[in-house]
Design brief:
The protein is an alpha/beta fold. The protein has helices at residues 3-23, 35-49, 64-72, 106-119, 127-139, 143-146, 163-166, 207-217, 236-247, 270-286, 291-298, 307-314, 328-340, 343-374, 376-429, 432-447, 451-456, 458-514, 521-530, 534-547, 553-560, 562-578, 585-685; strands at residues 52-57, 88-93, 98-103, 153-157, 178-185, 194-198, 223-229, 253-259, 301-304. Among the domains are: 57-220, no CATH class; 396-633, no CATH class. The chain starts with a helix and ends with a helix.
């Protein structure tokens, strides 16, 4: 394909890429601060203007500026610089010599100051901080004339005055404020729209300037003149630089210059140094998976030079070596052939193709990355759904187990309650003997008086003393039994509540073990259980049980004890009528009491026990209901939480379905874009 045809095809591809970018759902024009768009614009401008940029790179003190001065046949570029003050210099062809100086912006200067501050040690200032302080003190209020938010520049500077802006040796010079120098001069190697960029050292101490060099200037370089010092022909900085350029697909054509061979000792072989450099370069290229690395490995060209000796010869100064011996003329011949005798045109076409491929493969990588991560939100949502469902199932299952425990605990309470009531009834019936004894003793005490007085006052004594004593005795004895039963039932209820509490605590513990700690589910449900007053409702129920022995007791006595009291008095009267003659009246009265009182008393206590038992058993269901209400309070709250959780789960499932639909749509769009980029890549391959 002819040069013009390749150029036309390349511009067509750029337009197609821009169209795809404009319709892309990925918003690629804004990705990474618009890098894709910037790359297209830069490449389009390069193709249209036929601009060819040569970068001169190397670590500090490799003689880059001296080398360019030798090519220029004059000391145009300052060699008296410090690493802290080095500026980027671009050389362009023009009939009229002049220079333009660009200063740091306020934002850039702040970044430099911040770096200096970070490198200060206690009260000792770093080199950069010293530089910042010195220039500020030197310029005073004039400082703001050069450093501004938008960036200042000085134009149309005669080249004879360039040292004021670039040399570190010029008093009150501005080198410390200069970011970039543009030089226009009649430089042979900049004809035909060629630009040469002299960069600061690769080991630049000013990190922000290194960023500008690497990210702003080097990406647009079509060819690099890579200088290595003969005394140290391949450093870690050199290797890291080449690896980065290869990784970013920014290394296209490379000429390697081993400079300062005139400084070698007599026993040091230039050929051995060249071979060492070649080996290091090949190893670096072989370690890269970049296609350009294979091409570069096959075409490594290394030139030993003594730039300073050439510069001395060309500026009419005494030199130890001839210009021919310096190796610079030989390299110049090679550079001319490349730039002006056809190789450059082919290289440009290869570079266009390489940069277009880089643009496309960059999009491949972005699309593939998005395709790989496309399902990530849904997968994360699935994990969330899985966790929520598992949490729901675990809590539901454990809640069922806990409520089963509650039912068993209540069943045990009912059985124990029944047993307590049965024992109470038995104890009430068993009160007959001690009550009988007290009644007989009471009668005996009464009968110790005069027979006439006993018989005469017996009715009055019965109404005023015996009857109240009988009622009180029975009431007190029965009340003691009932209160004791009530206390036992109260303790039983309290034990039941404790069992409930332990059941809920076991549930919380089990949930905390089965559900990941990050969900903090155990703590949530512990809070629900802890906030429930387990004893409050039960206390009300227990009070109703105790009231059985107090509030209702008077009605029991009214119904149960009128019989024995009336019987006792009538019995005494009957005894009096029956005991005239025979044994003494007192003996007959006492005998009659002993004969008649036990069965009557037993009958009364039996009826009382039966009534109390029925009433207390009737109260049992109310107490069980209250206990169950207390036990179920946490369950009701937890079930409410579970219901909300189920609602959330349903929403998550709906969200997943919606997201999956969107993802399927996006995947289809991405694959469509990828297919278009693949077609373009094929078009580039055939250019």
């Amino acid at each position: 394909m002819t040069f013009q045809k390749t150029k036309s095809e390349a511009l067509s591809v750029i337009n197609t890429l821009r169209e795809i970018a404009n319709t892309s759902t990925r918003n690629v024009l804004q990705n990474k601060n618009g890098k894709f768009q910037k790359d297209l614009v830069m490449l389009e401008n390069q193709i249209n203007t036929m601009r060819f940029t040569v970068g001169v790179v190397g670590i500090f003190n490799t003689g880059k500026s001296t080398f360019l001065n030798a090519l220029l046949h004059q000391e145009l570029l300052s060699t008296k610089i410090l690493p802290e003050t080095a500026a980027i210099t671009t050389l362009n062809y023009a009939e009229e010599d002049k220079a333009t100086i660009h200063y740091w912006t306020t934002e850039e200067w702040d970044a430099i100051k911040a770096q200096g501050a970070s490198e200060d040690k206690d009260s000792k200032l770093s080199k950069i901080s010293k530089m910042v302080k010195e220039i500020k003190q030197s310029l005073g209020t004039e400082f703001d004339k050069y450093i501004s938010r938008s960036g200042e520049k000085t134009e149309n500077i005669p080249l004879t005055e360039l040292g004021k802006y670039t040399s570190a040796n010029v008093k009150d010079g501005l080198a410390k404020l200069v970011r970039e120098v543009e030089v226009e001069t009649q430089f042979e190697f900049c004809k035909n729209n060629i630009q040469i960029v002299d960069t600061p050292g690769l080991n630049d101490p000013v990190k922000f300037r290194e960023h500008i060099t690497v990210d702003r200037f080097l990406p647009r370089c079509d060819m690099l003149l890579f200088l290595l010092p003969a005394r140290q022909p391949f450093t870690d900085s050199d290797k890291e630089f080449l690896e980065k350029q290869l990784k970013q697909k920014q290394l296209h054509k490379l000429f390697v210059l081993v400079n300062q061979v005139d400084t070698l000792r007599s026993d040091e072989s230039v050929d051995e140094i060249i071979e060492f450099a070649r080996t290091q370069l090949e190893e670096t290229f072989d370690e890269s998976d970049n296609d350009d690395a294979i091409h570069l490995t096959k075409q490594i060209e290394i030139f030993p030079i003594a730039a300073y000796q050439s510069f001395l010869n060309r500026t009419g100064q005494p030199a130890q070596w001839t210009d021919e011996k310096s190796g610079v003329p030989a390299f110049e011949d090679r550079l001319r052939r490349f730039l002006f005798e056809g190789e450059r045109a082919q290289a440009e076409q290869d570079i266009w193709k390489s940069r277009l491929k880089s643009c496309v493969t960059g999009q491949f990588a972005q699309i593939d990355n998005q395709l790989v991560n496309l399902d990530k939100p849904v997968k994360e949502l699935e994990e969330t759904i899985k966790e929520v469902k598992r949490e729901h199932d675990v809590i539901t299952s454990r809640l069922e187990r806990t409520m089963a425990e509650v039912e068993r605990t209540l069943g045990h309470f009912e059985r124990q309650y029944q047993a307590q009531v049965e024992r109470m009834a038995e104890r009430v019936i068993a009160l007959a003997f001690p009550i009988e004894k007290k009644m007989i003793d009471k009668v005996k005490a009464y009968l110790t008086g005069n027979v006439w007085s006993v018989t005469k006052n017996m009715k009055k004594w019965g109404d005023e003393q015996f009857k109240p004593f009988l009622e009180k005795t029975i009431k007190n004895e029965v009340e003691t039994v009932v209160l004791d039963a009530g206390e036992q039932i109260k303790q039983l209820a309290e034990t039941t509540l404790k069992d409930f509490e332990r059941s809920w605590e076991r549930m919380v513990s089990d949930i905390s073990v089965q559900i990941p700690v990050k969900n903090n589910v155990g703590a949530d449900y512990a809070s629900i259980i802890g906030s429930t007053a387990l004893g409050a409702g039960a206390g009300v129920a227990l009070a109703s049980i105790l009231a059985l022995a107090t509030a209702h007791f008077s009605s029991y006595l009214a119904a149960a004890f009128l019989g024995p009291a009336g019987w006792a008095l009538m019995g005494i009267g009957a005894v009096w009528m029956a005991v005239s003659g025979g044994r003494s009246v007192k003996d007959k009265i006492l005998s009659k009491f002993r004969e008649e009182l036990p069965p009557k008393l037993h009958e009364v206590l039996k009826e009382t026990a039966k009534d109390l038992k029925n009433r207390m058993l009737k109260e049992k269901s109310a107490l069980v209901k209250e206990l169950l209400k207390v036990a179920e309070t946490p369950a009701i709250e937890i079930q409410g939480e579970l219901q909300q959780q189920q609602t959330n789960l349903d929403q998550l499932l709906a969200d997943k379905k919606s997201q999956q639909f969107d993802i399927d749509q996006k995947r289809s769009a991405l694959n469509g874009e990828k297919n278009r980029f693949e077609a373009i890549f094929g078009q580039i391959e055939t250019m």
